[in-house]
Write a structure and sequence with these properties.
This protein is an alpha/beta fold and 283 residues long. 47% of the residues lie in helices and 18% in strands. Strand 3, helix 3 and strand 4 form a beta-alpha-beta unit. The protein starts with 6 loop residues before the first strand and ends with a helix.
Length: 283
């Protein structure tokens, strides 16, 4: 299977510099897109979802500061690493860029090898930093894997998977804001249930963007599961506008699936085996 290339968006009005950076980073193994205007750069970033943006401050329409502000104000691009590329050298100007959330800053004329290393380092920091969900602020990724891995060395645990089905259909019908509100509300209900019925050290995180995982103990998992199921099933209809709630539209409505996994369901070869079994037990 071919590994996905990191995507870089270059927003630079100097055509010679833009062409040189485009050619250089393609040779380095990146997928590269170029925009020569600030407005075009904002649109390209929202359409291409780059892993990193190299952004010139001096642009023909809006400046790089305004581009950075718009990217940071948009949920989809809020965490995209930005490296400012500019002729400006003053401390005040650099601070202005950093205050807008730039990850790094390099001035012209620049050493292309230095820029390459800054790009590499920013991408590595971005990958390592993706440990919380941007909508719910719950742990995800490596933090969840580490917590689940701890279960492999113990016999006193119980894992619950809470899956929200058809969230994509809901998002298509009502938009990102409404679907994010659903995720936040569900996350709060799951966390509140764990606080009320579970143990003080119970763990709640994301298995995937629309799946929540709870690590608790065998003594409470049945009561906790019943509380979560009851709360969510009572609430799902209320996420819809009244007209659609009454007419039972759209056809693919939000639905709940849950699964429980206990040590007796093992033995487990490794973390991937545990996660696979947990998925298969959904109902």
């Amino acid at each position: 299977m071919t590994e996905k290339k990191p995507v870089i968006l270059i927003i630079e009005d100097d055509l010679d510099v833009a062409e040189m950076l485009d050619a250089y980073f393609r040779v380095q193994g990146y997928e590269v897109y170029v925009a020569n205007w600030g407005e075009d750069g904002v649109k390209a970033c929202q359409a291409k979802h780059p892993d990193l943006v190299i952004l010139d401050i001096r642009l023909p329409d809006i400046d790089g500061y305004e581009v950075a502000k718009r990217l940071r104000d948009n949920r989809r691009t809020a965490s995209t690493p930005i490296i400012f590329l500019t002729e400006k050298r003053s401390r005040a100007e650099r601070l202005q860029g950093l205050e807008l959330g730039a990850d790094d800053y390099i001035t012209k004329p620049f050493d292309i090898q230095e820029l390459r290393l800054r790009v590499r380092n920013s991408l590595q920091r971005s990958t390592l930093g993706a440990v919380t969900n941007p909508v719910t602020n719950l742990p995800e990724g490596t933090i969840v894997d580490e917590r689940l891995s701890e279960c492999l060395d113990s016999d006193d645990w119980a894992i619950m998977l809470v899956t929200l089905d058809n969230l994509e259909s809901f998002r298509e019908a009502y938009g990102f804001v409404a679907s994010d509100d659903v995720l936040r509300a569900v996350s709060i209900m799951v966390q509140n249930s764990a606080r009320k019925v579970g143990n003080p050290n119970d763990f709640v995180g994301h298995f995937s963007p629309s799946e929540f995982v709870v690590v608790t103990t065998p003594e409470v998992i049945n009561d906790l599961g019943e509380r979560i199921r009851t709360r969510l099933e009572q609430s799902l209809d209320y996420f819809y506008p009244l007209r659609d709630r009454e007419q039972k539209k759209p056809a693919k409505r939000l639905a709940l699936q849950m699964a429980e996994l206990l040590p007796m369901d093992g033995p487990f070869k490794d973390l991937d085996h545990l996660k696979s079994l947990l998925h298969r037990k959904r109902k």
